[in-house]
Design brief:
The protein contains eleven helices and no strands. With 241 residues, the chain is mostly helical. Helix 7 runs parallel beside helix 11.
């Protein structure tokens, strides 16, 4: 059982090492030529990198042996049902839960609240992101089930985003586009994407590459819209006040 859990762990180990090596190299160069931090801070930095290395390795191993296979199996099982329309509410719930657990989103909302001195409440921002992504995952399931082209969602969505940008402050515009990247983190891509691929594999006349992979673009669009709408509501409240 233990050996199965750590199958091909050496590959994951090597990939994480290659990913973190440039960061260590740049830090070493800056430390030697520019920063010259005290020894205590350098030791803390090294400990942080070591913890990140171990955490990323274990997380990616869990993704390969757990998240992706289970997500695809769930999609194939539900997609084969006669009442596969249930994927739409399931997608909503999973989208909400995954963003609630997404580490990058947690970091983003905390930093936004800190930087804005509490003006932008992190809970308001977190729930706005969760609801936006939940709707986008539901739309992805509708698109896979019906075969609607992704252009009918992406083009109107970005047009609405461009119009909303005129009515919100520049701070919310910057946060909105950063939120799109944070929402498409490891939790979303590994579980929801693999589930959508499983659904597309099970349905007739569906291509997983064409029908399933557009889900990530919808998830990236949803936080932009939800944060811009939140910014619009903040501006209205400020105007009324």
């Amino acid at each position: 059982m233990i050996l199965t859990l750590f199958k091909d762990f050496d590959i994951v180990f090597r990939d994480v090492a290659f990913a973190l090596a440039p960061l260590l190299l740049f830090f070493s160069l800056f430390q030697f030529f520019v920063l010259r931090l005290p020894k205590r801070q350098v030791i803390k930095m090294i400990k942080g990198v070591a913890l990140t290395f171990v955490g990323l390795s274990l997380f990616l191993q869990g993704v390969h042996i757990g998240f992706m296979p289970v997500g695809e199996l769930m999609g194939m099982t539900i997609g084969s049902l006669k009442y596969n329309w249930i994927l739409i509410p399931i997608g909503f719930l999973l989208g909400f839960a995954v963003i609630m657990a997404e580490p990058a989103v947690r970091v983003l909302v905390t930093e936004v609240e800190k930087t804005s001195s509490g003006y932008i409440n992190r809970n308001n921002m977190l729930y706005a992101l969760c609801i936006g992504v939940a709707f986008s995952v539901s739309l992805s399931m509708i698109r896979v089930l019906t075969g609607i082209s992704i252009w009918y969602f992406i083009v109107p969505g970005y047009l609405i985003a461009l119009m909303l940008m005129r009515f919100v402050s520049s701070e919310f515009v910057a946060i909105a586009f950063d939120a799109g990247g944070a929402a498409t983190g490891p939790m979303t891509v590994t579980f929801i994407l693999s589930m959508t691929v499983g659904v597309a594999k099970q349905l007739d006349n569906r291509e997983p590459i064409l029908d399933a992979f557009g889900m990530v673009s919808l998830v990236a669009l949803a936080p932009i819209l939800s944060i811009l709408i939140l910014g619009f509501l903040y501006k209205r409240r400020l105007t009324r006040g």
